[in-house]
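Hi everyone, sorry if this is the wrong subforum. Our group has a chain we'd like a structural model of before ordering constructs, and none of us has done structure prediction before. Sequence below.
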Amino acid sequence: MNYLLSLLTGALVALMVYLNGTLSNYTGNYSASVLIHFVGLIGIIFILVVTKSKLKGLKGIPLYLYTGGVIGVLTVLCNNVGYTNLGASLTIALSLLGQSVTSIIVDHYGLFGVPVVRFNHKKTIGLLIIAMGVFFMTLS
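Answer:
Right subforum, don't worry. Here is the predicted structure as tokens:
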């Protein structure tokens, strides 16, 4: 099930980059980012109401954990610029390469308290395949 959810996430991200980038072409990067996050806020409020869920555990959270919201905004802005200049597929491919390298570093050193998962040569093969894909995508 986790594999399927991760696959679905990848499909949704690709769709999101296309939709957000197209919106950005109409409204500009900053306006699009505001609209995207406002609609996201409305969406999560709707989900909270429908599922009768409540926000909980908001006390005692370290402040640095809130920076994920800033990273979300920067991600949307960078994707919008990338989409406009590179197209959806190359933007996603480069994002995948960046995510993979960062994830390997985080796992290898156990950053942010995650369990240590040492880098091995099999991961090098995966990174090379992704990098070659990005290279071939830039040839056209």
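For your construct planning: Residues 29 and 91 are 15 Å apart (CA to CA). The chain is about 75% helix and 0% strand.
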